[in-house]
Amino acid sequence: MQEIRLASRPSGWPTADNFELVELPTPEPGPGQVLVRNQFMSVDPYMRGRMNDVESYVAPFQLGKPLDGAAVGEVVASNAADVPVGATVLHGLGWRDYAVLDAAHVRAVDPAAAPTPSAYLGLLGMTGLTAYVGLLDIAQFREGDTVFVSGAAGAVGSVAGQVAKLRGAKRVIGSAGSAEKVRYLVDELGFDAAFNYKDAPVRDQLREAAPDGIDVYFDNVGGDHLEAAISSLNKYGRVALCGAIAQYNDTAPPAAPRNLALAIGKELTLRGFIVSNHNKRMPDFVAEVGAWLRAGQISAQETVVEGLAGAPEAFLGLLRGENTGKMVIKL
Amino acid sequence: MQEIRLASRPSGWPTADNFELVELPTPEPGPGQVLVRNQFMSVDPYMRGRMNDVESYVAPFQLGKPLDGAAVGEVVASNAADVPVGATVLHGLGWRDYAVLDAAHVRAVDPAAAPTPSAYLGLLGMTGLTAYVGLLDIAQFREGDTVFVSGAAGAVGSVAGQVAKLRGAKRVIGSAGSAEKVRYLVDELGFDAAFNYKDAPVRDQLREAAPDGIDVYFDNVGGDHLEAAISSLNKYGRVALCGAIAQYNDTAPPAAPRNLALAIGKELTLRGFIVSNHNKRMPDFVAEVGAWLRAGQISAQETVVEGLAGAPEAFLGLLRGENTGKMVIKL
User: Looking at domain A126-276, does it have CATH number 3.60.15.10?
Assistant: First the structure.
C-alpha cells in the first residue's frame, strides 16, 4: 500500500515538498477490524489549517505521519460480522490506498443511492451538509431572501446556492475565480447572477448584481468578500462564516473587513460554525438533498484527479481555486 | 428660550464651531400640545453619527436646525388634558431649554421612583435598556458566563457589567480609559477585574484579566478591543455589537478586527443591535433594574454639566471619554 505523509510544515503557500509518498506492506485487519480499499479520497480547504502546528478545532497533522481525511472505499477483508466484505464504507483515513479501521469507525453507505461513491465525500457528504446547515441553520435562510455565496463554484458554495434556489430564494448571486465558473453558475446551476472576483472590486460587482442588497451571505472566502457583503447586507442580514480560503496561506493578518461597525446599525448577525457539531442534521439533509438528486434538481459536478500520487498537487490546486465542485482523488 | 443648532458638519473630531447657541422667543403650545421646561438633556455617542450627512438608523441632524435627543422636564403649560401642568415627562427634544410637543410625543415618568429625573436618561432610560437588551437578548448572557465589557465606566457599560454580576456572572471584566475609572469599576461597581486600555495592548491585559477566556463580550468600542475579545472568546462565545466609539471620529477605516476568521472554528456569534427596536423589553427592564435600584444593589453615577451653553463641550468630552457613567446636562 501507499500513503502520503507530512514531510514538513509550510509557511505561507504549501508546496509538493511538504508531502512524502511512502510504500508499506498492506496491513491485515485485527479482531473487530476491516481492511478497506479506498476508491476515492477527499481534499478540503480545512486541511490547510491542519498543516500548521497550532491548536484548532481539528488536531494538526503530525510530522512524519500520514495525513488523514474523508475517504470512501470497499471492504476487502473483514473481522467484523456487521461490516461484510463488499460493503461500501465512508471513513476518516484518506491519503492512503488501503486502510485498516475498527468496524465502529466506518459508516456503510448505499452505492446505488448515489451516481458515484464519491458523492458521499461531496454532495451527500460533509461539504453538502456544510452548505445545508450553514444556509438553513446558521444564516437562518428564509424564502424570499436574496443570497450571496462566495466561492460559489466550490463543493460547499455550489450546493449552498442550489439549496437557496430550491428553497425559494428571491435571488442567488455567486462569486468565483474564472469566466468559465461564472458561466457554470448561471447556465448549469441556475444562479441568478455571478461574477469573477478577479475582474473588479467585489464591492462594486456585488452592488451591481444585487442592487436591492442581500439578506444572507454564505462566506467561504473572508477578506474583501466579507467586507463587500457587510456593505451590501440589508437590515437584519445574516452571515454564515464557513471559511476564509482567501487568507489560509497568508502570513500577515488580513486588513478586511474594515466595516464591521456597520453591523450595529444594520443589526446584522455573523455566526461561525463547523459542520462536525451539526451531524444531527444529517437525516434531514440526506432526505431533502437526496430527493432533489434523484429528481435531477440538484447538480454535483466533481473535479476528479487520478491516483494517490497526484493528491498533493490536487490539494494545492484546490487552494488555488482550480476545482469546480468537489475535488476528489480517484484511487 | 435657547437652543443649540448644527452650524457646520465636522470631518473627524467635532469642535465647538460646529454648534451655535441661538436665542428665541419661548413658544406657546398649540391645541393638544404641551410646553416643557427641560430639566436635563442627554448627550450620547450615537449623536456623532447624526452630525454626518449620511443615511443611518437615525436621520442626520440638519444644518442650521436645532439638534435633538432625549430630555426630561416639567410641563409648564398644557392644552392636553392627559398631560397636566407639573407632570414630569421624557421626550425627544433636547438641546434646548423649552420644548413644545404634541402630548402623544411625551411620556410621563414618576419622579419619586428615581433618585433624580436624569435617571430617566440613563439607568432607567435608553442607556440602561441598551445594556439590559444587549447583555441578555443579544449576547444571550447565561449564569456562570465570564463577561468582558469595554467602555465599562460609561453609561451603557457600567450598567451592563452590574447586570451581569447581579444575574450571576462567574467573572466580569471591564476596560476604561483612566486609573480612576478602573478603581471605580472594581471598588464601587463590583467588577472582578478592570484595566486601563491606555496602559498596554488590550489583548495582553484582557488575557491577564481573563486567563480562562471570556464567554460574552459587550462591545462599546470596536477596533482593537473587538480584536482582543475575539482572541479571548471561548468556544460558542457571543458578542453584542453595541457601539464603536473608538472609530466614530476616524476619517480612515479601522484595520481591525483582523482575526474575525477565528469566529469560524470557535463558532462565535456577533450580533449588532440598536435599542430603539427593543422597546418591548422596557417593562421587564424597569421592573428588574428598578428593583435593584430601590434595594441599593445597582449604582448610577452621572457626570452632570450645568447649563445649555456647556452642552457642546460636554458632548465633545463624552467622545474623549471624560465622563464616568451617564453624561447629562442640567438646564
Answer: no
Domain range B2-121+301-330, CATH architecture: Alpha-Beta Complex (3.90)
For B119-174, how does the pLDDT look when each residue is reduced to its tens digit (9 = 90+)?
Answer: 999 999 999 999 999 999 999 999 999 999 999 999 999 999 999 999 999 999 99
- Which residue of B52, B218, B241, B276 to mutate against A (max A Cβ within 10 Å)? B241
What CATH homologous superfamily does B127-276 map to?
Answer: NAD(P)-binding Rossmann-like Domain (3.40.50.720)
Is B260 in contact with A263 (Cβ distance < 8 A)?
no
CA-based nearest distance B163→chain A, Å: 21
User: β-strand B146-149 against B19-23: which pairing, if any?
Assistant: unpaired
What value of ipTM does the predicted structure carry?
0.91
| Tens digits of residue pLDDT in B268-304 | 999 999 999 999 999 999 999 999 999 999 998 999 9
- pLDDT reading at B248 higher than 90: no
The CATH T-level fold of domain A2-122+300-330 is Quinone Oxidoreductase; Chain A, domain 1 (3.90.180)
- Where exactly are the structural domains of chain B? 2-121+301-330, 127-276
In this complex, the residue of A57, A257, A266 whose CB is nearest that of residue B260 is A257
List A residues 220-249 in contact with B (Cβ-Cβ < 8 A).
Answer: 222, 226, 241-244, 247
* Interface check A255 vs B, CB under 8 A: yes
Residue pointed to by grid coordinates 456562570: B144
A98-124 pLDDT tens trace: 999 999 999 999 999 899 999 999 999
C-alpha grid cell for residue B212?
Answer: 480562562
Strand partners for B2: B23
**CA-to-CA distance for A79 and A69, rounded, in angstroms?**
23
Query: Under an 8 A CB cutoff, do B261 and A247 touch?
Result: yes
Of B221, B231, B234, B239, which is closest to residue A271 (Cα–Cα)? B239
Asked if the model's pLDDT at residue A5 lies above 90, the reply is yes
